[in-house]
Amino acid sequence: AQTSDAVDAQGYVRYLDIEEGIAGVEFKNANGSKFVRKYLSSAPDQVIAAQYKAEGEDKLNLNFTIEPGDGLGASAVKYEDGMAYFTGKMTVKYACRLHVVADDSATVTTSAKGISVSNATEVTFYLKGATNFNGDVNASSYFVSESEDKINERTKEAIDAAVAKGYEAVEKDH
């Protein structure tokens, strides 16, 4: 995510809690607003999740994009309804999906350039990638016969479940 209207940070703390499996950042800006960012990877929910919070008069104004990189055989990124995704094929077929969720006071705008969130006090994003790699060394094939669209559908199902569960529950269970 990219922030706009940056103001000098005060009391900046970056941390990695190995026991809890959470990384984060906390700081206040010159106006006294507090900003908190937490990041985790959830094995039970099969997503990466991040939560951004703002406390005080200043709000979160963020832009989200995903870029597959060159040489990966990826489709163009599609943005719709606070989500972004792409699929591709190299030796494996794969899909990647991002879903951005903001509090009710925020404005979320999706365009061909990405997902923009403005005037938010809380923003959460969920990220999921998947492939058709089997992983079973005893299987007759290392790859499951699965289309890129089916893999993309699996990523959407996992993210939809995590969104429905909510960040706090995903964090608790991870």
Describe what you observe in this structure.
Helix content is 14%, strand content 48%. The chain has two helices and twelve strands, in the order E-E-E-E-E-E-E-E-E-E-E-E-H-H. It has an eight-stranded antiparallel sheet with strand order 2-3-4-5-12-9-8-7. Strands 1-6-11-10 form a four-stranded antiparallel sheet, with no helix packed on it. The two termini are 22 Å apart.
Quick structural overview:
By secondary structure, this protein is mostly beta strands. Helices cover 14% and strands 48% of the residues. The protein has helices at residues 148-165, 167-173, and strands spanning 2-3, 9-17, 22-29, 34-42, 47-55, 60-64, 78-80, 83-89, 93-102, 107-111, 114-120, 122-131.
Overall geometry comes to globular
Which sequence of strands runs across the widest sheet?
Answer: 2-3-4-5-12-9-8-7
Integer average pLDDT: 92
Radius of gyration: 18 Å
Annotation, overall tally of beta strands: 12
Order of helices and strands: EEEEEEEEEEEEHH
User: With helices defined by DSSP (H or I, 4 residues minimum), what is the helix count?
Assistant: 2
List the helices and strands and how they pair.
Layout: E1 2-3, E2 9-17, E3 22-29, E4 34-42, E5 47-55, E6 60-64, E7 78-80, E8 83-89, E9 93-102, E10 107-111, E11 114-120, E12 122-131, H1 148-165, H2 167-173
Antiparallel strand pairs: 1-6, 2-3, 3-4, 4-5, 5-12, 6-11, 7-8, 8-9, 9-12, 10-11
